[in-house]
Amino acid sequence: MNNMGGKKIFRKLQNYFSFWNVALLLFLVLSAVFIIYPFGKMFLQSFTTAKEEGFTLANYTTFFQKKYYYTALINSLKICIVVTVITTALGVPLAYIGTRYNLYFKRVINIMIVLSMLSPPFIGAYSWITLLGRSGVITKFLASIGIDIGSIYGFKGIILVFVLKLFPLVYLYVSGALSSIDSSLEEASESLGVSGIKRLMKVTFPVIMPTILSAALMVFMTALADFGTPRLIGEGYNVLPVIIYKEFLNEVATNPSFASALSVIITIISALVLLLQKAIVDRKSYNMSALRPPAPVELPVGKKILATAAVFIVAFLSIVPQITVVVMSFLKTRGPLFVRGFSLESYRNIISKLSTNIRNTFTFSILAIALIIIIGLLGSYLIVRRKSKITTFLDILLMFPYVIPGSVIGICLIVAFNTGPLVLTGTMWIIVISYSIRKLPYTMRSSVGILYQIDHSVEEASISLGVPPMKTFFKTTAILMLPGLLSGAVLSFVANINELSSTIILYTGKTSTISVAIFNAVNNDAFGNAAALATILTFSTVISLVIFNKISGGKSVV
Amino acid sequence: MSQTVRIESVVKEYGNFRAIDNVSLEIKPGEFFTLLGPSGCGKTTLLRMIAGFNTIESGKIYFNDEEINDVPAHKRNVGMVFQNYAIFPHMSVKDNVAYGLKARKIKGAELIKRTEQALKLMQMYEYKDRQPSQLSGGQQQRVALARAIVIHPSVLLMDEPLSNLDAKLRVQMRSSIKKLQKSLNITTIYVTHDQEEALAISDRIAVMNNGRVEQIGEPKEIYMRPANTFVANFIGTSNFLQGEADNGVVTILGKVKIPVKLKEGYKGKVIVSVRPENAALCPVQEGMLKGKVVFATFLGDYINYEIELEDGTSMEINEYTSNVDQHWEAGDLAGIDLNTKRITVFDHETEKSIMVY
Questions:
Q1: Which range is most confident: A209-218, A441-450, B34-43?
Q2: Nearest-CA distance from B214 to chain A in Å?
Q3: Looking at the structure, do residues A37 and A62 belong to the same domain, yes or no?
Q4: HEC string of A231-298?
Q5: Average pLDDT value for residue range A228-233
Q6: How many domains in chain A?
Q7: Which of A185, A278, A345, B198 shows a CA-CA span of 20 to 30 A to A486?
Q8: Which of A45-54, B4-13, B346-355 has the lowest mean pLDDT?
Q9: Which has the minimum average pLDDT: A285-294, A486-495, B263-272?
Q10: Given an 8 Å threshold on Cβ–Cβ distance, is B78 in contact with A464?
């Protein structure tokens, strides 16, 4: 009897310390250390200054009183709104043309669009400077025949780069939605006498409106968070991420609390946008899977050429930066100037001087991806299959970095791990952590999605056949999740090799990456080196995309 | 080998909702036992408690004399067949079946022998190297069964295993399941909402409703002697007629008097249940129920009549085509001849049977 009682207690303990409970505990501890603590510390720090003791709103009042600062906020919002409006106005009609009509070179168009979406925005800024900047190739050519195109620095340039970089996002999201409308819906409308433009306005667009809005808000958030573009092509045009960077670098020794306050402000804006998006999508989302997606219509030749031209030109413009950097990387350079003739000089340069950066980029990104895969695999399982108040809380925690711009994550991590029990500043780990938490939400969402599609009883079958829960997970569900998880991870990987916003704050000489090197090269007018480095990134992105296609069996990126 | 499953006052709660409300059962060794009931009655919940996938809030479950409440699912040694088969999609047929044996550290020749035996038993041997995606629903079902029995489970649990098959295959499979179960002599608990399937396959049935057991018995007993109106209506079809009972005589519609063996001295309002096959249409005679034919449906082996009685009650009557000469048509007035030995009488309030057999 006594023995049986002991056995029972042992079993109860075993149940309590089951694999998943331990994993949950571990994740909660990790997110407390690497998400709650850094952000909390930064948040608290934003209410302090070096001069005063205790709690103060001084940083915030300074922000809203000094023109230099609040103008940056206004500029940021101006840029984001204009970019969002233009990308949507451009992306939605083009997506409609692209999905509903047969175009020439459709595959090429799609490849260009996906590639430009995945490449880093600062390469866009840099390329357009080399083409349209003060000493740009096109500027000079036009000047030689007497045409002055004016300056593209500042507001105009930022808008140009963002629009071409972000319109693909709208295009891909909306194309996805348009091809998941069952044709019966539009046919029903026609049979009821509503057709043509009227049908488009009354049926098609209202149905995809939630998608359009989410894409638009994604554009808004990305434009708000980006540091490289406004820094490079904006010149004196200050936006929030740029002044955060400036404040932080200027004052890191004396008063990082002002940068913290700026970070809090930008995070709040970003979070508000996300909440708005969630509210819209939750309220008005139509779950559709087309049994019979609309077949693309064959246009008469003339119209087909026009339609193709419209989509092709925009897609081509968005890929111009990539083409530019690849071409330039093989040109001979003298300082900031490109001279006639081809050479591999730039590549020789970067391999001799910057091989550490190249190695770092791939080491950090691969380590981050390994962490992301493990956390994505186990975390999504906890959230979907072990639903409770605690796992819902974990879900929110892991998704939180999604709203935090890269530069803010950088500052959070520095503020948290500069001193104290865990010092990480200056190590490679702080960059790996930044990459992991910032890009985790993407993989998380996709693996949660996959998990909902995997039948739970497969696991129960395994358990009932005598395999304990943890082993069961790795022998069944984990294997079934892997293709989807990996294809999500490839996209996170691409985002990480191209990451600049947080790296620029976290790097030291030893932990510098390709993106940082490009940024510095552009600032030092070493355009050849920048082009060669950017080509490496572009090339890696293309290879990753090919791998993605292999893993996901050719399904689209979005 | 085969085990007794004893369920003692088991309760399952989801918040305030009692999914299983104090259920007690005892399933005998080697018995084919079915939990039957409408969706949401708790039958699957109870099965999953036995399998170890649902916790038990109170009460106890025993396999033989061992209480298994705190034994984790993977140590209960149950074979389970799922509604959607839950075949491992990333493993071949052979690997699916060998899975549970490998978990039991069975290796080499023994592993191959037992796997092949199970596959042969389920007539799936030729398919052993196929991937699940290459199998039909019926074949997946056979793999699921082979996988469940190959481990020599103490108890075999089946959760609506036939509901995804087409009608003809369903009838075939249920007889092969029954034969398999008898030849292996495994205690089996089977969940279904299909009363015909339950009648065909089970040694005994527990009819469940709202988390409670309404009646336990052999198929014949449940059909012929339903314990209450729910069972009478859920198993087969029953016509319910209002009546009065007094001194061993039940009066329907105030005029038709039927002598029935009721509980000693029972008196009061009753519900009389008549199955469609236990009444026949005939020319109208005095002292007999009569009604108008509303609709006649010819179904081949029998004809189904919808009759409206004098008080407006609707009644269904089936007549075998081969047994009758006269076919009735809508509008006809007919007498109704009740097979009084086959009627069941329930108390009007409690809706419980007051018959003495």
A1: B34-43
A2: 29
A3: no
A4: HHHCCCCCCHHHHHHHHHHHHCCCCCHHHHHHHHHHHHHHHHHHHHHHHHHHHCCCCCCCCCCCCCEC
A5: 90
A6: 2
A7: A278
A8: A45-54
A9: A285-294
A10: yes
Whether residue A176 sits in one domain with residue A40: no
CATH (one of 3.40.50.300, 3.30.565.10, 2.30.30.140, 3.30.1520.10) for B5-230 = 3.40.50.300
List chain A residues with CB under 8 Å of B144.
461
Chain A residues within 8 A of B75 when measuring between CB atoms: 466
pLDDT higher than 80, residue A490: yes
Please check whether residue A384 lies inside any domain of the structure: yes
Q: Are residues A367 and A243 in the same domain?
A: no
Provide the domain limits for residue A121.
57-309
Any CB–CB contact under 8 A between B92 and chain A?
no
How far is A374 from chain B, CA to nearest CA, in Å? Answer: 21
Q: How far is B72 from chain A (nearest CA, A)?
A: 8
Query: Chain A contact for B14, CB < 8 A?
Result: no
Which residue, A295, A284, A285, is CA-closest to A179? A295
| Mean pLDDT in residue range B64-81 | 92
Buried-exposed string A78-92: b where 16+ CB fall within 10 A, e elsewhere: bbbebbbebbbebbb
Q: Cβ distance B199 to B36 under 8 Å?
A: no
Q: Could you report the per-residue pLDDT of B281-328, keeping only the tens digit for each?
A: 999 888 888 999 999 999 989 999 999 998 889 999 999 988 777 889
Q: Contact B163/B84 with Cβ under 8 angstroms?
A: no
Residue with tokens 């007690």: B24
Is B89 near chain A, with CB under 8 Å? yes
Q: What is the ipTM of this complex?
A: 0.85
Please check whether residue B81 is in contact with residue B148, taking contact to mean a CB–CB distance below 8 angstroms.
Answer: yes
Paired residues of B297 in beta bridges: B304
- Full DSSP string of A417-462: HSSSS---TTSHHHHHHHHHHHHHHHHHHHHHHHHHHS-HHHHHHH
pLDDT in tens, A54-112: 888 888 998 899 898 899 999 999 999 999 999 999 999 999 998 888 889 888 898 88
Q: Which chain A residues are Cβ-neighbours of B104 within 8 angstroms?
A: 466
Tell me the C-alpha distance between B139 and B137, whole Å: 5
Say whether A68 sits in a helix, a strand or coil: helix
Chain A residues near residue B100 by CB distance under 8 angstroms: 465-467
- Phi and psi at A121, nearest 5°, equal -65, -30
Could you tell me whether strands B212-217 and B267-274 are parallel, antiparallel, or unpaired per DSSP bridges? unpaired
In CATH, the number for domain B237-347 is 2.40.50.140
Choose, out of B70, B85, B115, the residue to mutate when testing the contact with A (most A CBs < 10 Å): B70
Among chain A residues, the shortest Cα distance to B96 is held by A462
What share of chain B in percent tops pLDDT 90? 78
**Alpha helices (H) along B125-202:** 137-149, 167-184, 195-201
CB contacts under 8 A, B 316-335 vs A, are none
Quote the CA–CA distance of A373 and A34 in Å, as a whole number: 17
Residues B178-234 have pLDDT tens digits of 999 999 999 999 999 999 999 999 999 999 999 999 999 999 999 999 999 999 999
**Taking CB atoms and an 8 Å limit, are A455 and B76 in contact across chains?**
no
- Residue A7 reports pLDDT greater than 80: no
According to the per-residue pLDDT averaged within each range, which of A180-184, B45-49, B84-88, B264-268 is highest? Answer: B45-49
Q: Give the pLDDT confidence of B91-111 residue by residue, as tens digits.
A: 999 999 999 999 999 999 999
Domain boundaries, chain B: 5-230, 237-347
Angle, helix A205-225 to helix A155-178, in steps of 10 degrees: 140
Give the pair of three-digit tokens for residue B243: 């009546």
Contact A477, A451 (CB under 8 A): yes
Please answer whether residues B118 and B149 qualify as being in contact, where contact means their C-beta atoms are separated by less than 8 angstroms.
yes
Residues A223 and A348 in one domain: no
